[in-house]
Design a protein that fits this description.
Blueprint (H helix, E strand, L loop, with lengths): L2 H10 L8 H11 L3 E3 L6 E3 L1 H20 L3 E2 L5 E3 H4 L3 H7 L4 E6 L2 E9 L4 H11 L8 E10 L13 E11 L2 H22 L5 E4 L11 E8 L5 E11 L1 H5 L3 E3 L5 E3 L1 E8 L1 H10 L16 E5 L4 H18 L5 E3 L7 H10 L4 E5 L1 H6 L1 E6 L5 E5 H29 L1 E3 L3 H9 L5 E6 L3 H11 L2 E6 L14 E6 L3
Parallel strand pairs: 3-7, 15-16, 15-17, 20-21
Antiparallel strand pairs: 1-2, 4-6, 5-6, 7-8, 8-14, 9-10, 9-22, 10-11, 11-14, 12-13, 17-18, 18-19, 21-23, 22-23
Helix pairs in contact: 1-11, 3-7, 10-13, 14-15
Length: 482
């Protein structure tokens, strides 16, 4: 195969979502240069375009975290086995996923170290040293880091042995303050995912069977992918005093008595990049929300005759100067690729707006814009471009959210009974199924065993599902999930 044929195949050949969604997903992640496989089992390399996407997401979420009074810190990657073993439920929950360091150089270590699957244990140990008085509370810390979970089946971004995330860990004087923190951060995640990623979500409480190991309660942010499966997009945990008792995290209250603190933890990860791909992508590749897209607009110069080249390039510079810093702009003036090749490439990579500039555009002193979300074209005079382009990007952001919300609405159904839930998934239908749940573990287990669907959450706001509400029951959302 010639280099030209290889390039054409790279851009044009993409599995349709309806034919094989999983294959489509992997092809898009690799062809759009978000990530690739490595020789390290279950681990991926995040390529510059994918990491640029993560950096934008990180910046926007970090701003929200800091606005709620949290500070960033960094804790060790390695956790002594003795610390991890102190909390029985916690270690039991993570034991199958732990990777262990047993050698230091050429010497056998006296104690194994776990490569952090999460940081409650090491942070609990340190909080016990740092917290002495009620005046030290609350402790509101967050860290951006990597973690490792030895997953058996992996898929880039969705489930990998090593991934990037943020994890918040807080300590409070009262249970009421801790519960307020849990819901505050749940709302931070909801706002971030819906506003910046254009992904509608349901927020709610996990069942006991699905909660985080060692937590009293786990709240979740649940999104729906285009194949009808749910994806957990973030979690917020009420840890109660379990870890405080295990690690002896106490403070002296205003009456001089020793009290155990109340704790929370919460996190979101690079899994959100996978969510972006699967919620917004189409058969041509990515469709990135402008708020987080590494490149919001790309300029593709067009000329057929050498005499047109200088005029087009000069006009491109005027366009670039006009836009300035208002938009994350890229100019693709590579000679080795045709304009058609570039159109396909940037559609694959999900750039929200393409700006085409040829001799006719130079003559009319305008730019032809093409939206990635709906391919609508619009000729924009240069004099109006700096003001029009941000408005266009904002409309694309809203349009992607509306489309995802309409898809979720069309794929959320209500069921009158457990039998109806089972019948829905048995018919190979997907999406969310809302049903009145009496809290029975047997109900939940039977649905999972017979259909593979799990109880994703009990919505914080059950009003949209009033039709299935029953006295003494909680509304529960079931779905097959990643």
């Amino acid at each position: 195969m010639s280099e030209t044929d290889a390039r054409k195949q790279f851009v044009e050949e993409l599995t349709d979502q309806s034919d094989d969604f999983s294959r489509w997903y992997i092809e898009v992640v690799r062809k759009a240069q978000l990530a690739d496989y490595t020789p390290v089992r279950g681990s991926m390399v995040i390529r510059p375009y994918g990491y640029g996407l993560w950096e934008n997401m990180q910046r926007l979420l970090d701003r929200r975290i800091k606005a709620t009074g949290h500070q960033n810190a960094y804790f060790p990657l390695l956790i002594p086995e003795s610390l991890l073993q102190l909390e029985a439920d916690h270690v039991k929950g993570f034991a199958p996923e732990c990777a262990w360091v047993t050698m230091g150089g050429r010497e056998q270590l006296e104690e194994r170290y776990a490569i952090r699957p999460t940081s409650e244990a090491i942070i609990g140990h340190l909080y016990s040293r740092w917290i002495e008085s009620y005046r030290d509370l609350p402790v509101l810390l967050n860290q951006w880091c990597n973690v490792m979970r030895w997953e058996k089946v992996t898929r880039p971004f969705l489930r990998t042995a090593e991934f990037l995330w943020q994890e918040g860990h807080t300590a409070h004087a009262t249970e009421a303050e801790a519960r307020e923190e849990v819901l505050r951060m749940l709302e931070v995640y909801r706002d971030f995912v819906e506003t910046e990623l254009a992904i509608p979500v349901y927020t709610g409480l996990k069942s006991d069977a699905e909660r985080f190991a060692g937590a009293e309660q786990t709240y979740t942010v649940e999104a729906l992918m285009r194949d009808g499966k749910a994806l957990q997009a973030g979690t917020s945990h009420h840890l109660g005093q379990h870890f405080a008792r295990v690690f002896d995290i106490t403070y002296q209250d205003e009456q001089g008595k020793r009290q155990h603190v109340w704790q929370t933890s919460w996190g979101a990860s690079t899994r959100l990049i996978g969510a972006l791909v699967m919620v917004h992508g189409d058969d041509q590749g990515l469709r990135l929300p402008p708020n987080v897209a590494p490149v919001q607009a790309v300029i593709v110069p067009i000329w057929r005759k050498d005499e047109d080249r200088s005029a087009v390039r000069a006009f491109v510079e005027r366009v670039r100067e006009s836009i300035g810093e208002r938009v994350r702009l890229h100019v693709d003036d590579r000679d080795q690729y045709s304009p058609g090749w570039k159109y396909n490439e940037y559609e694959m990579r999900g750039v929200p707006v393409r700006l085409e500039i040829g001799p006719k555009d130079v003559a009319s002193q305008a730019v032809m814009s093409v939206r990635r979300d709906n391919r609508a074209k619009e000729s924009i005079p240069l004099a109006q471009l700096a003001e029009r382009l941000p408005v266009l990007l904002a409309d694309i952001q809203s349009s992607l959210y509306r489309q995802a919300e309409e898809f979720r609405r069309a794929n959320t159904v209500e069921a009158g009974s457990k039998a109806d839930v089972i019948a829905h998934f048995a018919a190979d239908r997907r999406g969310f199924v809302a049903v009145a749940w009496d809290g029975s573990a047997a109900f939940e287990a039977e649905v999972k065993e017979r259909t593979g669907a799990t109880l994703r959450c009990m919505p914080v706001d059950p009003k949209p599902f009033a039709a299935v509400a029953r006295p003494g029951h909680r509304v529960a959302l079931f779905a097959r999930a990643y």
